[in-house]
Amino acid sequence: MSLGPDAVKCCRALLAPTYIKQHLDIAPGTPAKALASYLVICLYCSRGSHYLMMDETSQVLHNRGHEVWMLLQTGILMIPGKGTFLRRDYLKEYEKWFADYTEDLLKGRYYFIIIIMHNFLRSLNCLEKTLNSLKDEKFDITVVDGFNPCSFLVAEKLGLPFVAVFPGTFANGPQVGIPSTLSYVPREELMSLISAIVQNQVQTKFENVIKEHFPAGSRPVLSELYLEAELWIYNTDFSFEFAHLLLPNTVYIGGLLAKPAKPLSQELEDFIANSEDGFIIVTLGSILSSIPLLEVLQEMNTAFAHLSQGVIWRCQHSKWPKELKLASNVKIADWILQNDLLGHPIAHLLVTHGGLNSLMESIYHGVPVVGIPLFGDQHDNMVRVEAKNMGIALRIDQLKADKFTRPMKQVIEDKRYKSAVMSLSTIHHSHPLLPDQRLGRWIKHVLQAREGAHLQPYTFQQSWYHQYLLYVLLFLSASVLGVIYLCVKLVRTAVFRIRSSGKQKQT
């Protein structure tokens, strides 16, 4: 990372003007002054979903009259119109790594990998000047990307209370104290088996950084920092998530990025008008803008040609093989406005990688899905998709034309999928508060209360043996054993005396 004060100011410039005069949360006659000052830390913005989530969070807070600064990591962010900070050597290294990894995935060679860029581990080194300048700004609170451990260390270095925004489901529940018993909280098998091991490995990566940048005697422990969040805010919703217990400091705002659809361009409307049976949307996420393998492109293109619907496919023109003729019912685009397309009246299907933002948008607009999970939480997300009957999951090694065509036709033609996702949409839309209202009001509550300690269970302050009442069990066990021992002694004594009395009578 190479962030300095100028980068912070530049990030801030990406937002709307800092001060606003009118908003629902601002009483009439209130001076044009920010209600509170926030620092939003997003140090894993090479993935578009993370950036979009943190950017929308910043906008929600800003629209409520707060001053918002956003600290971004240098990296790749291929989202048109959003801007980014690029460092050429890092960009080249990252693109090569991701291209190799993607090719392995598309060939069916899936392996679990911990994605931690070296930049994270060096971030505190490079952030020293930035941190010093940020301390002078007197922020009230910081909002961190809960996926990246480095965000917590930056907040700790600044000495600020923090709210953690996790860009996925309650997958890290055990890590932050949320009850996640497998007997009633289903999870994708691989995720449940290795998540604890992975978290331990992730935290181990940061031990040297902590030793280097925090003095002995006051070095934070990441597992404890996670429990110190004033709030944990999750990008999920119980229209999609399995119902289970939550802690008082847990808030869910799934669907924050989903919006009412805006009109499409005339070019897209003309294409859709020529598709009598409606159309489908195909996008495998903001970081997979093209398919690097010709054989995979051929299979997908052939599968789409077998559909009667039109296909709007996010795929880069510049990387489309010249020797492969595009199917007549397919339109490719470097970037698509997925939310607006999903909101079109004759959108019949979303073919997706299984990212949570995409799935929440499909629920919002009531469009069923066929998911091709690639990595990360996408497999776990697709477990929920199939359990809710809103679509079908397809393994990447099943991406052959006939096997790909079959589930797409099934989801489009079988009205049970559409009915299921419309029911989920009704659940989502009928929530008493909109996602942005939940986000804004809960953070406002924490600020007004000066802390979120009243929302944290006392168990966070207990050792593991106190949590499970082992000392009580030990005392009760000892008491029971003591009573049993005394009873046995009394019985043996009584028996001995009876026998002794009998012998005396015989003599």
Provide a concise account of the structure shown:
Pfam families: UDPGT (PF00201). By secondary structure, this protein is an alpha/beta fold. It has helices at 5-13, 48-63, 88-106, 118-135, 149-158, 173-176, 189-205, 207-213, 222-227, 266-273, 294-305, 338-342, 356-365, 378-387, 401-413, 415-429, 435-448, 464-467, 470-506, and strands spanning 37-42, 67-72, 141-145, 162-166, 231-234, 250-252, 279-283, 310-314, 330-333, 347-352, 369-371, 391-393.
Largest sheet composition: 6 strands, parallel
Give the end-to-end Cα distance, rounded to a whole number of Å: 99 Å
Report the total helices. Answer: 19
Mean pLDDT: 81
Question: How much helix is in the residues?
Answer: 40-55%
Biggest sheet strand order reads: 2-1-3-4-5-6
User: Per CATH, which architecture of the largest domain?
Assistant: 3-Layer(aba) Sandwich
User: Class by helix and strand content?
Assistant: alpha/beta
Radius of gyration: 28 Å
Q: What coarse outline follows from CA principal-axis ratios? A: globular
The H-level CATH homologous superfamily of the largest domain, spelled out, is: Glycogen Phosphorylase B
Regions with little confidence, pLDDT below 50 for 5+ residues: 1-32, 111-123
